[in-house]
């Protein structure tokens, strides 16, 4: 296919896009991205866009990095594929050792997958089998947070706290329970208590996990799944002390704390792992996305030594795996990506620029439609409201018209690729490549200001 028209026809006739209302493209054009460079992407017509979402929270090192492409090509020539089913290959071994060294506490064992949903599935299955092996076979349930997204495989979707995502696929895997999230902007609405400080709300939210464990029965709950900064709903950072309290609760009830860092790991918050940003050590980390900066698919579940111990000797086996988990080419790309992180000090770059990014976005708070700006590192959400004083949100119909009917398309046409998200209250999410800086922040703010001003006028 040599031209844009041929690509459009083939896309309309054959490509089934993910999470896409295909009817919205009937008689229209599917956006076609053909290349990327640095923090920018280009469509088939040559128009440039600022990649305000790093693809999908993925392209940490930026687009067009020849060193990552070269690492993939070199490994493909040397050993393109071999599975990790009772065999090993050097790149997977080297990467596992490197991740174990970077991970907090005694998280020294790495199980590779091809993506984040698979890593979450792996963590839940491991939790179930582990407790069977240590004499607590009833422990199988998991607790997660409202509006939290943990993936689309059957188990991961069961853990996900977004009912509209789940309805078409019910019945799902039983044994998943929801608790309140850390949305401090709506703390009074969620908790029923006015005037809570962030610390008080964090304590209240963490204690709801303890209450859920007691309600379900401590002998039935295996794990709590939480993100360092919750993605769905619009980047909810943890209130001070939240994770420390959650760690205490998990220890008290012998429940595994799973830190789902598919988005938050590998520099997104300015640390290698998200838990390091907020001072807690989980039992399991699930990760993917930024591990290779998207140059090849790869995910990883990283767990503590004690969870591997029942499998270390004898005949016991974790009967779980994926054909392409720990793929040699992906592993080589991940190693080159981590080298690049160190060489260019991407973690330090995010840490140094985080406050600038935040203050740039907070300039938008003078707009009547912007209710809250929240997040951490290079991961931010802007909540849109109907009334700033009362925090009144939009109705379902208004949100549909605002986000899908106008904002998503208008932002893209203005040169900014980001996410207008309606999985909770309406938000705009931003997570640019980690190489971005003040120039890109100003460009993001300028486009958002223009489009949000028009959106308010339309309302």
Automatic annotation (TrEMBL):
NCBIfam families: PRK06541.1 (NF005102)
PANTHER family: AMINOTRANSFERASE, AMINOTRANSFERASE CLASS-III
One Pfam family cited in the UniProt record for this chain: Aminotran_3
Family assignment from sequence similarity: Belongs to the class-III pyridoxal-phosphate-dependent aminotransferase family.
Protein name, entry field: Aspartate aminotransferase family protein
Gene3D superfamilies per the UniProt record, alphabetical: Aspartate Aminotransferase, domain 1, Type I PLP-dependent aspartate aminotransferase-like (Major domain)
Keyword entries, A-Z: Aminotransferase, Pyridoxal phosphate, Transferase
Phylogenetic placement of the source organism: Bacteria, Bacillati, Actinomycetota, Actinomycetes, Streptosporangiales
GO MF term set: pyridoxal phosphate binding; transaminase activity
